[in-house]
């Protein structure tokens, strides 16, 4: 039998003492966020199309040949600016004819009025019949009516003559001309000569679900959502993904719902001083609907779905044990869900570290932001031999 040396006794004693001092692992840490009430700005990103603030199709109001085009395509024009000149010769002749007819009618007034006066004196002495006197009076009145009619005819001829110069009805940017010099145009034609569009400011027509519009109105009536200034603010994202520098305002919501899509047209107005927005462009509009003063936000990663599709979260409850909660989360706000039911301020919602845990398990809640890389996924370290001694 071997003799036990003092060194061997010390070694066995050290090994045995180390095994007795090893502490068991505690509850696993999980990253949590504490739910708090805060003011939440509600916004929706929706597709839209730009449309001109004013649009005018320029058409002729008289018949004739185009003698001149007086503008450059694509330029900015002002209201009243001359755009086309139609051959005025036929209308100048009509004006001259109407003026001559008016002079003839005025000349007839003098003779008929004098005849009516003479017959009026003669009928008093029974030199002529009363019928002749009345006929002379009627002739004088007809001459005066003819003058009024010829004045109207002259005015109409002058209007047609003025219309041989086609002028811009509104100010804006003019498009291409569909008719050239020498083309025959008519007042009844369907095709426009050109189109003028005012694009500063400019409209953006947004398609929004009627259900969303109804929900927002109900929330505003109940006081859950407030809107500063009375008008919703709108921001734009352009086709290239950039954000439009100017902010617009909501003007109105259409009073009818499209039965095929179940949506309403929401119109917003934007300044367009640099002409960057053109009619017909596709944009995405971020409609700032209002502010919910008592909103509860939960990170999207903390929300899961049960077998029925209902949103659920894990909450650290009494004695630091996990609880499953069903919540109402109708919409997202940025990277979070807006919770309207199932949670209350102060609840600790598990964000990460509970993938392998079940409700009822004891955990150690750790603030998610302070957790870093040593949070739920990190294992607790064993005490050192110095601490065990």
Characterise this structure.
By secondary structure, the chain is an alpha+beta fold. The chain folds into four domains: 29-40 and 295-370, conserved putative lor/sdh protein from methanococcus maripaludis s2 fold (Beta Barrel), CATH 2.40.420; 41-53 and 200-292, Beta Barrel (Elongation Factor Tu (Ef-tu), domain 3); 61-86 and 164-191, OB fold (Dihydrolipoamide Acetyltransferase, E2P); 88-163, Helix Hairpins (Orthogonal Bundle). It is 27% helix and 34% strand. It contains six helices and 21 strands. The protein has helices spanning 6-21, 89-124, 130-162, 210-222, 368-371, 385-388, and strands spanning 29-34, 37-58, 64-69, 76-77, 82-86, 165-167, 172-174, 184-185, 194-209, 225-226, 233-237, 248-253, 263-270, 282-299, 304-305, 311-316, 322-326, 331-333, 336-339, 348-352, 364-367. It has a six-stranded antiparallel beta barrel. It has a four-stranded antiparallel β-sheet with strand order 6-5-3-8, with no helix packed on it. Strands 20-1-21 form a three-stranded mixed β-sheet. A hairpin with a 5-residue loop joins strand 15 (304-305) and strand 16 (311-316). Helix 2 runs antiparallel to helix 3. The two termini are 33 Å apart. Residues 6-20 and 370-389 have low confidence and may be disordered.
Q: Which band does the percent of strand residues land in?
A: 25-35%
CATH superfamily of the largest domain, called what?
A: Efflux pump adaptor protein, beta barrel domain
Number of DSSP helical runs: 6
Task: Give the CATH topology of the largest domain.
Answer: Elongation Factor Tu (Ef-tu), domain 3
Largest sheet: 6 strands, antiparallel, barrel
What's the number of domains?
4
How confident overall, as mean pLDDT? Answer: 82
- What portion of residues is helical? 25-40%
Read across the widest sheet, the strand sequence of neighbours is: 2-9-13-12-11-14
